[in-house]
Design a protein that fits this description.
The protein is α/β, with parallel strands linked by helices. The chain is built from four helices and seven strands.
Length: 145
């Protein structure tokens, strides 16, 4: 589906109302297609739903993971796996240890072989139509369209 930036934000709002602890959002696409932008929109909306002040959301490219506490027992983990080269590095960052305890947003998830059963996979690509992104979504487990 072709989406404007506003429509990408609207999609993030819908998704932020559906996810629960233990769910994962995989964001795939080339550099600059809007993965981090989607994550920012999602976090803004998710914090708003939970009546919390939106934190400053930055790309976790260099730290690999950024944690956003929402409530006492609710945390969003935003991963950027771009710099990782080997599957075993995923164990070093606690990706699998926390999977059922947080909501995960994972950019560049291609290294992940053992995917979360409750997940949304978004592929964001450039569009030939200026101002649009081509976005495809696949839903698995309890995350529904």
């Amino acid at each position: 589906m072709l989406l404007t930036l506003k429509e990408l934000e609207d999609l993030s709002k819908k998704i932020s109302k559906k996810v629960k602890k233990g769910d994962t959002i995989y964001l795939k696409g080339n550099l600059g297609t809007g993965k981090t932008t989607f994550a920012k929109f999602f976090l803004k909306n998710f914090f708003k739903i939970n009546k919390k002040k939106t934190p400053l959301v930055t790309s976790p490219t260099f730290n690999i993971v950024q944690y956003y506490p929402v409530k006492k027992n609710l945390l969003v983990a935003h991963y950027d796996l771009y710099r990782l080269k080997k599957t075993k590095e995923l164990n070093n960052i606690g990706l699998y240890d926390l999977e059922n305890e947080v909501i995960s947003i994972i950019e560049w998830p291609e290294l992940i072989k053992k995917k979360n059963k409750n997940r949304l996979e978004l592929l964001i690509k450039y569009s030939k139509k200026e101002g649009y992104r081509d976005v495809s979504a696949k839903y698995f487990g309890r995350i529904k369209k």
